[in-house]
Amino acid sequence: MAERIAGYDYGTDAVAVSPVTQDDLQLLKAATMFSDEDEQYLRKAGEILKDQVDQILDLWYGWVASQPHLVYYFTGPDGQPDARYLQAVRHRFGQWILDTCLRPYDQDWLNYAHEIGLRHHRTKKNQTDQVASVPHIPLRYLIAFIYPIGMTIRSFLEKKAESPEELDKMHQAWLKSVVLQVALWSYPYAKEGDW
Amino acid sequence: MAERIAGYDYGTDAVAVSPVTQDDLQLLKAATMFSDEDEQYLRKAGEILKDQVDQILDLWYGWVASQPHLVYYFTGPDGQPDARYLQAVRHRFGQWILDTCLRPYDQDWLNYAHEIGLRHHRTKKNQTDQVASVPHIPLRYLIAFIYPIGMTIRSFLEKKAESPEELDKMHQAWLKSVVLQVALWSYPYAKEGDW
Q1: What per-residue confidence (pLDDT) applies to A140?
Q2: Is B22-189 CATH 3.40.50.720?
Q3: Min distance A93 CA to chain B CA atoms (Å)
Q4: pTM
Q5: Contact status, residue A5 vs residue A91, Cβ threshold 8 Å
Q6: Which chain A residues touch B147 with a CB distance below 8 Å?
């Protein structure tokens, strides 16, 4: 976290204000079964994942790169993947892994979750990195990614988990958080009053 | 399946036509890592779950009933849960467990998935059962439910799985399918062109 990550505006005025309140968040947490215990296991997960961020991103980026209909959302006007865009997003994606595990889910976190949604949605896609890529990532892929992002983390947690029980609890906490965050990111996609 | 389930219009003209094509579905399956092998494991899961549908629904209904902000979506004008509505949905919910495991994901299945989305959304909520409940289930709770519905099935699969490996594969196939279906159900919630 020593180096400034371009476009990583966490906790600053550059980030949108989330329309979601802490009360909404508590109810949403309950609907994903997310508890205080999960928060504790996310802290442990963060300690394990923080040294493996590059390997995790290699796996995720490799998987996306293998599917033309997914890498499409990183392509430029020439139809080729925009390497600068991929790289800029990668730095923030790595930081997101850490934030998921180590940040308190307070108003700054809610605001940045909302900002992440906007940056996938046509409202703000491409703006942060000033790229000329396709204008929008569809809602269905945001939801679909719950599985790969939620599940592939397990092998990285496994490397340093102290017991099968701890592994499982860290992994469940991660999966709940991913579901919770995709629910938050979906806000700009929903029709007025539908979210 | 011998008895007709009220409002269960699978494969009939009473069901909406999905705007999602088989090509879209294949790409969405790929984004959730859903493969032919998952289809096979869902068949096995169906054989295990079909005798436990009532117990599964008891668990899910008990969990929803314990959370006022969730049972709210089943309440009538008097603010009390509508027992007839809960019961009518329950029959179809049980059938959904079987359909998830045992039906081919063809056009009829896609159409009914779209219908399920409409019945959660303000477009068609309450109509099937002719009830006067709250008009809409928010998108965020549809997404949030991926976790409880996706994960609590494991203990039921565990009872008759032949090996830990088979249990895991059945469970992963189930979770992928739940993610896939919530992505399909989200269609009516999205702004024009955002899905």
Answers
A1: 98
A2: no
A3: 18
A4: 0.97
A5: yes
A6: 32-33, 175-176, 179
